[in-house]
């Protein structure tokens, strides 16, 4: 019966769960899959989430379908290991998230009115989450902000939590002043202090830049991803221009490449204006 399910193209979620169970079977499973644990699989989970985000950013819906499947597999992998260890099951995970969504949306699934602003709904959401944290004995303001988040994302979440209790600058001018201050401290550290101290000052500067992003309602991770993509696109244009004259970046110099960079930048702007 299980064999038939595994080879049934319409087997749906039960099929995927059975495939993972078989892969992890100590006697007949895949040696690599059997050896894995939560720690070894966690990096793949993070990687797959980023690949989902990348497919969305490129509007590649065909690839997104596959990437969502890869991400779903990560959930199935973790729940199979959790089931083997007696921690939880796929069904208990589904129940927990379903219960959470119902509890956090009383204006949809309960008696509360839906006649409220988006800001009020966000406020209510945070109030419900705070109550949940209190139930888990997470009573400090910054409790529950996952340490495994990308550093810029975690910085923003920490700052948002602190801001809720009044620990925040009133406007962006104060944040920009702090960026100038931290940049000065970084320059001083570079000239006079140890590498560890320089690293610390650099971290301080990045933290304040993340704070500016928060005040400007910008996702710093998304902004940096966009800039990475822009840099890649323009540098490849530089490489292409050099290739047209039989050269590579290694054969060029900074002045030439900088001029080609400016040309690529101008071409992009002209294309945007003509579209």
TrEMBL record:
Q: Which biological process annotations from GO are given for this protein?
A: dATP catabolic process; dGTP catabolic process; dTTP catabolic process; dUTP catabolic process; response to stress; TTP catabolic process; UTP catabolic process
What is its EC class?
hydrolase
Q: Which GO terms describe its molecular function?
A: ATP diphosphatase activity
Catalysed transformations (reactions):
ATP + H2O = AMP + diphosphate + H(+)
Give residue ranges for domain NTP pyrophosphohydrolase MazG-like: 36-109, 176-236
Could you say which EC number(s) this protein's record lists? 3.6.1.8
- Which InterPro entries does the record match to this protein? MazG-like_dom, NTP-PPase_MazG-like_C, NTP-PPase_MazG-like_N, NTP_PyrPHydrolase_MazG
Its family remark reads: Belongs to the nucleoside triphosphate pyrophosphohydrolase family.
Q: What is the designated name of this protein?
A: Nucleoside triphosphate pyrophosphohydrolase
Source organism per entry reads: Yoonia sediminilitoris
Task: Give the lineage.
Answer: Bacteria, Pseudomonadati, Pseudomonadota, Alphaproteobacteria, Rhodobacterales
